[in-house]
Amino acid sequence: MSSLGDWLFLIIGIAVVGLIAVVGLVSSGRRRSLRQGSTDVLAPPRPPSADPTDVEQLDAPILIPEPEAPALERPEGTASRLVRLRERLARSQGTLGRGLLALLSRDRLDDDTWEDIEDTLITADIGVGPTQELVDKLRTRLRVGGPDAGHPRDVLREELINLVDPTMDRRLAISGADGSPGVVLVVGVNGAGKTTTVGKIARILVAEDRSVVLGAADTFRAAAVEQLATWGARVGVEVIRGPEGTDPASVAFEAVKEGVDRGVDTVLVDTAGRLQNKQGLMDELGKVKRVIEKQVPVTEVLLVLDATTGQNGLIQARVFREAVDVTGIVLTKLDGSAKGGIVVAVQRELGVPVKLVGLGEGADDLAPFDPATFVDALLD
Q1: Which residues contact 275 (CB under 8 A, 6 or more apart)?
Q2: Within a 10 A sphere around the Cβ of 204, how many other Cβ atoms?
Q3: pTM greater than the 0.70 cutoff
Q4: Mean of the pLDDT values across residues 27-48?
Q5: Mean pLDDT of 182-199
Q6: pLDDT per residue as tens digits for the range 345-362
Q7: Helix or strand or coil: residue 107?
Q8: What's the average model confidence in pLDDT over 131-155?
Q9: Is a pLDDT exceeding 70 seen at residue 50?
């Protein structure tokens, strides 16, 4: 009996061991299945495949966000520009006005005082002729008129405004006849700020709700073309350009043609800076103007002068006047070390008005020139 019991226990033990072994094999297989990519919801997601033939990856939509269109800038209006004009002129040019007022306010206006007044005006780049004219008028009114002449500041203000000449037409000719676009040709020497001026004029016109096309005819400097394209992009204005080294006249022609075809209000043409003593370059400038006028007349030729160059700017002005019919002056950098009298001198030299003045590096730091605002800023 004892022997039969031992065998029974042995058989039961073998059966239990076998059952445990079978259960272990099944569990092991299940674990391997999970590790190999089971669809069980507890299994971690499979990382994306880099294989371009992976069907699952090709079927998945690829969402590429569309680039946002750059927001167009809204340039400042004329009123705010004129306010800034007066503030900056008062800071940069106020020394001239204060010096004149101090001299004219002396108890006794003797010959030495009038000589000091002349020296102050000539130092401010007004020029010998206009200086003598202004001094003669001041002496007549203040010495001969006596107490009835009025306050020296009021007399000086009136005579300075007359010297700057408020009768000159300072409007930009930005419209053509019979619905054709106005064409503004911008010229000047290297470094005067022509390209920047073209971009700033475009902003002024856009602020007035005018349609504009820019012509990048400075084809010798790739940087100038890119700079003008940047200015145009900021206010949504198209820029016509050509490969580097292209004939500037052909680019100007295409820009005007595009303006005519689209019926825009104004075409602004930037030209290459050139030294006034290079006759070949000056002749090329005349060619650009002639080629443009095969389609429509050039309505405005703006000469850009760096106001800090003083009397040297007058030499430049004479040469450009001979090459092209300059109709207006843009004085840049008038907020810096420039002497405000250059406004009077250059107008007398060319017989054409200063129409715009640049007063800083900002995008909207170009303003229409107003004689009364200019003089008031000098005397503030």
Answers
A1: 189, 190, 281
A2: 23
A3: yes
A4: 43
A5: 92
A6: 899 888 999 999 988 788
A7: coil
A8: 84
A9: no
CA geometry: angle at 322 spanning 321 and 327, to 5°? 30
CA separation, residue 355 to residues 88, 168, 212, 302, 367 (Å) = 17, 9, 19, 9, 9
**351 burial class (0-12, 13-18, 19+ CB within 10 angstroms)?**
exposed
- Identity (one letter) of the amino acid at 247? D
Question: How many whole angstroms separate alpha carbon 248 and alpha carbon 218?
Answer: 6
Spatial strand order in the sheet of 354-358? 238-240, 212-217, 266-271, 182-188, 300-306, 328-332, 354-358, 366-368
Residue 273 has pLDDT above 90, yes or no: no
311 token code pair:
């009397």
Question: Over the chain, what is the mean pLDDT?
Answer: 80
pLDDT above 60 for 298: yes
The dihedral over CA atoms of 324, 325, 327, 332, expressed in degrees to the nearest 10, equals: 20
- CA 304 from chain centre, in angstroms, equals 14
What is the torsional sign of CA 33, 37, 38, 40? positive
Helix (H) or strand (E) holding 262: helix 248-262
Query: What number of residues does the chain have?
Result: 380
From 208, 287, 278, 304, select the one nearest 252 (Cα to Cα). Answer: 287
